What does this fold into?
Amino acid sequence: TVASVCAGAEALGRAGLLDGRRCTTHHALQDELAARHPRATVVRDVLFTTDDRVVTSAGIASGIDLALHLLAVRHGPALAARVAREMVIYARRNGDEPQASAMLRHRAHLDDTAHRVQDLIDARFAERLPLDRLAAHVGVSARTLTRVFGRATGLTPLRYQQALRVERAEHLMGHGATVESAAREVGFDDARMLRRLRRGA
It folds into this structure.
């Protein structure tokens, strides 16, 4: 994989790596990049682009978003979410990419208690995780956790866990699993709950 940040896309263009590919750069340089490299497709209003093994970011700050994307692709969204948390930054959705994983989509906050609970759910979403157990994990009451988690993520811990289960089940079904086997794999007793949650998504 070759990556560029901000004006670095020009170097990729000179090397011929942008020919026939989608790319981006800093908004002030997009017209110039398009003029110099007409065989490239310059995409505007996005944080970064990926085209096969060539990735480009729009600016210096969006280089962080690009790095988080690469971590998520190679090592999973849970690791990318932990890195974003350690860096005290939001994991932003990129307008050029499919909807981000639920593990990243609900991490755009700075509440440590909610992040710690999300870390546990991310690692064990296929298990039964009663609210009392989650609350004990972070040393607060169940009522406090519900309030804090909801304020940070917009969801209850159960809804967050269900979102991860549905996402994983859809991935499994996309690779040939039946609804029934996917439901069991992610922790549902049967496929009925999975079907209901997918209809309501």
Remarks:
- The two ends are 34 Å apart (CA to CA).
- Residues 157-174 form the longest helix (18 residues).
- The chain is about 55% helix and 5% strand.
